[in-house]
């Protein structure tokens, strides 16, 4: 009998050994090489030299639970070996995971420990490697307070005793290299946590995941690097036309004839991209595609931050969707949720028995509005996890930008909390200083590492300098959603036209602060859910007036300073509120008895075309030079008129909106210079479903109006917006 520590054998067989690499595998003991292996249910085991294929020794089964050991004759130096194992009468050669060296290097440990590994996804999670001439997969997971961590999966009968990992104490990461693991196999981490409880967790860095309700991660290769390009950088720039189509992939379009199923990523790469290109949008923005357990969260409660949801296909399929968009000149923005995560047991909550990713105090770590947990932004490894994830989507999928959800909830410790339900910061204030530092750092890293990409903040408060560089005291986002503009203008549009003159300021107030940030004007999914009704339903009046109001509003929005965002379905005036469980009502566009929906769709397409063809409408979005009022005080007529300007002094567009159902004949409008003004867009065109009131050609007259020496006498259609372009004659 080979003398072996019985207590250690018992710990190995029970799956409780905290450091199996110190005991299993090949070790020099008292001047001799000893090989130890735990092979449950095996009857025999032999030692094979890898180099020669020669059988060197038969291992002795010294414990009926499957523990084997042998002293290698005439050998004192370590060498590569295999095990020839007999299970239930079948003999196979296997590689011993406990003979391989550590996976992570010293520099990896250093950077992971201090939180400065910009790409932790290149080290943690699963990675196909060749070690000592053997192909396999390296697994690594951060769980510093765990007593034991094992990989369990399709490759080891989901038995946590078989592949207990090595703890790298310098940074709290557990690791192991497993030969012969195949791509696509499911796996999780079985953790004995700091309290001795057994937990089974999905991989926080898993690159692929099972379809819900299953919750395992899937072994996947790290997606290949995607280079940034000057083309994408120019398309995302502050002086570029940016018109965003916001999409929820599960409900954009479905196959009712096939059980109401979703479209796959590859089907969307054809149908969605063709449609977006036809409509003239420059970008699509996808509601979160990170893996998430609950359909009804629309992706805003993600658990697999590194995995594109398996609902629509594989990670390669999603990558194909993004690259197809780029091939068609369309940028892709992802909604990204670093503000909170759900409490599902297979996720990040109390990952190793401690509050590892989240705060321990619910006054800091629990969102009462969403029943979710809040990341501990003050922890190096958590910041590393999130910032690395931001880079991952940009670098490995070619994503153009990240729209960061619920920024206000991160900025303030008292967000949606009553007195006594929150903890002040170190200075006694309400600002979440750690979250602010995290956002600045994230934006700095993205800006330096991938300067072609952009970040956008959904921020609903008056927090200053959201879209200003950190060096100037800002948060560093490229763009900020203008929630104030959205709320004010929708309140105005919901008024009966007869009352709008009393609310005139709601459409002008946005220009008071329009240039304080780099704004996106958002008509997002949030405006057409939870009883708010559709955009069409918000409009007052009879059916004709509702459509006319919506058309006038969209054209006003496209002319207003700021980039544009419109949620799917709004572009053809869907009548009902958005339902994430069903397809959009595409039949409305093809209804031969009601051309108004198709008319709105045609208008949005033309708005995008005029917008992209007119530098005056986008080139100077964030500076006073790009905008000038003609008249902002004609409240009695509910008329607004202004000029949008480009860098070229001859590049300008005159915009006139009439938000009453009364046509204004003989309206004298002061204009910037003498010449001829022609309509390039009129939302009252019969092509869009309007009354076809308008103006073909408006020569100027030397008659002063609106404090200008030149003017035109025009007809302003009812409930309409008109764009006029100047020429010399």
TrEMBL record:
Cellular component annotations (GO), alphabetically ordered: cytosol
GO biological process, one term: glycogen biosynthetic process
Enzyme class: transferase
One term of GO molecular function: hydrolase activity, hydrolyzing O-glycosyl compounds
Pathway the protein contributes to: Glycan biosynthesis; glycogen biosynthesis
Keyword tags: Carbohydrate metabolism, Glycogen biosynthesis, Glycogen metabolism, Glycosyltransferase, Transferase
Pfam family, one: Alpha-amylase_C
InterPro entries for this protein: A-amylase/branching_C, Branching_enzy, GH, GH13_cat_dom, GlgB, GlgB_N, GlgB_N_E_set_prok, Glyco_hydro_13_N
Domain Glycosyl hydrolase family 13 catalytic stretches: 246-597
Active-site residue list: 405, 458
EC number: 2.4.1.18
Catalytic activity as recorded in UniProt: Transfers a segment of a (1->4)-alpha-D-glucan chain to a primary hydroxy group in a similar glucan chain
PANTHER family to which the protein is assigned, alphabetical: 1,4-ALPHA-GLUCAN-BRANCHING ENZYME (PTHR43651)
Subunit structure: Monomer.
Sequence similarity: Belongs to the glycosyl hydrolase 13 family. GlgB subfamily.
Role according to the record: Catalyzes the formation of the alpha-1,6-glucosidic linkages in glycogen by scission of a 1,4-alpha-linked oligosaccharide from growing alpha-1,4-glucan chains and the subsequent attachment of the oligosaccharide to the alpha-1,6 position.
Protein name: 1,4-alpha-glucan branching enzyme GlgB
Lineage: Bacteria, Pseudomonadati, Pseudomonadota, Betaproteobacteria, Neisseriales
